[in-house]
Amino acid sequence: MKKLLTVSLLGVAIAAGTAQARDYDHVRFGVDVPYEPMEYRTPEGELTGFDIELGNAMCEEIGITCEWIEQEWDGIIPGLLSRKYDAIMSSMTINDERRQTVLFSDPYITPPSAWFAPETLDVEEPSTEALDGMSIGVQRGTLQDNYVTDMYGDVADISRYSTADDMVLDMEAERLDIVFLDFPVGKSTLLDSEERQYKVVGERITEPKEYFGDGFGIAFRPRDEALAERFNEALATLKEDGTYDEIYARYFGGE
Amino acid sequence: MDQLNQWLAGLLEGNVIFTPQTLGYYWTGLVTTSQLVFLSLIIGLVLAVPLAIGRSSRHRWVSLPIYVYTYVFRGTPLLIQLYIIYYGVVFVEGIQDSMFWPILKEAFYPALIAFTLNTAAYTTEIFRGAIKATPRGEIEAARAYGMSQSLTMRRIVLPSAFRRALPAYGNEVIFMLHASAIASVVTLMDLTGAARFVYARFYAPFEAFIFVAAIYLCLTFAILYLFRYLEKRLLAHLKPLGGN
């Protein structure tokens, strides 16, 4: 009996060992939907967006299959660590705080953040004095949340949302005075909105680096260095052969 | 105060997650949760007494609407009710210009309205059951003394019904406390909201949620002891003689 136990334990150990070192031929991506235009569903229910298309193109380049698994933002890193999926490609900004937990690929796009408000809001510059007492909307656990919490936490009333959609809904409902978002997302959800007129307040923001990091990267579990390297190579290839520019143009126009 | 701060700073030294800042969030969360639960329970209780009397009325035109109300609010999840009241109302034409908007604009009041209506529905049914269970003999005795219907209700039925309802109502209070955890979906920074914030910022689910679970446990125990005390006082006459 004891021998049998030892043998089977050994078997499990060997199986676990090979699982750790395995070469991925199928990668599951965690993604927080919707976050237009980076990841969202078409009216037909099909998952699409810049991240999705670029991710699929990279997988094709590497020669593996991939799958997208939806996960709300505030649990997205714990989900990766608990192996619900193998990587996160969901507009995640590379910064030092996250580097302590996950391994990042090279940045694949570097979008700024920006303040969005209705045309009617009488604020030119988002200084702490100007936003005193206002209600600011952010998505919970994002770098915009961290930035706003640290910079405006004492003067303004911060509302945190689980999804960017809920926040836009409350903006349309006039519950929020101003929101702080990734620029492409704010552009596609607010500036292009037909309900109300919105404007960008102040400059697009990419500094300080300790909050805004080095652009969006794919996050992996720290030991999957080989996998991250394969994605880095694929990204470089796609940038060289023009596929990247093609996808970029489709979502961000000629900017 | 300074000493307290120093003591706290010493205690938290080297702790990345539980800084004075995050403890501040938990504290605001505790205040919000207590306000929300306490207010909705008080208002719900005040609403539930007349509703329960109406619900046990013999006139169908009184009891039926109340039955429909309790049926709807007990038959749907609180989360759905909260979503409808918070996100739903903004689609009512012209609501932003109405006199109700300053109240509905804040996340606190829609949550309070949803919680109040929900707990009032449950409490109404608890009280109705207790009123229905009044022994017939007591009512007949009151009649024999020449008490009017309202006097009978006030002096005989309600006092004993409240006593009978007490244990079940204690459970409702605890359920309400736990149900209030959904307030964070409408941006309220309640206890769970604070925990979700800390979780999302430090990616530390265990620390964030176990800490908040401990706070909920303490609150629950406080409520349990309050009701145990009340039961001891108010239900003393039901105890066997010579017991403690």
From TrEMBL, chain A:
Cite the SUPFAM superfamilies for this sequence: Periplasmic binding protein-like II
InterPro entries, alphabetically? Iontro_rcpt_C, SBP_3_CS, Solute-binding_3/MltF_N
| UniProt keyword terms in alphabetical order | Signal
Q: Which Gene3D superfamilies match?
A: Periplasmic binding protein-like II (3.40.190.10)
Q: What superkingdom heads the lineage?
A: Bacteria
Q: Where in the cell is it found?
A: Cell envelope
Q: Which residues form the signal peptide?
A: 1-21
Domain spans labelled Ionotropic glutamate receptor C-terminal: 26-254
Q: Which residues form the Solute-binding protein family 3/N-terminal domain?
A: 26-255
Question: Main location per UniProt?
Answer: other
Q: Which family does it belong to?
A: Belongs to the bacterial solute-binding protein 3 family.
Its recorded name reads Transporter substrate-binding domain-containing protein
UniProtKB/TrEMBL annotation, chain B:
Q: Which residue range or ranges hold the ABC transmembrane type-1 domain?
A: 30-227
Q: Where are the transmembrane segments?
A: 36-54, 66-87, 107-127, 173-196, 208-227
Q: Which InterPro entries match?
A: AA_ABC_transptr_permease_3TM, ArtM/GltK/GlnP/TcyL/YhdX-like, MetI-like, MetI-like_sf
An example of a Pfam family matching this protein is BPD_transp_1
- Indicate where this protein is primarily found: membrane
Keywords for the protein's UniProt record, in alphabetical order: Amino-acid transport, Cell inner membrane, Cell membrane, Membrane, Transmembrane, Transmembrane helix, Transport
Where in the cell does this protein reside? Cell inner membrane; Cell membrane
Q: Which residues form the signal peptide?
A: none
Recorded topology in the membrane: Multi-pass membrane protein
* Family recorded in the similarity comment: Belongs to the binding-protein-dependent transport system permease family. HisMQ subfamily.
**What's this protein's name?**
Arginine ABC transporter permease protein ArtM
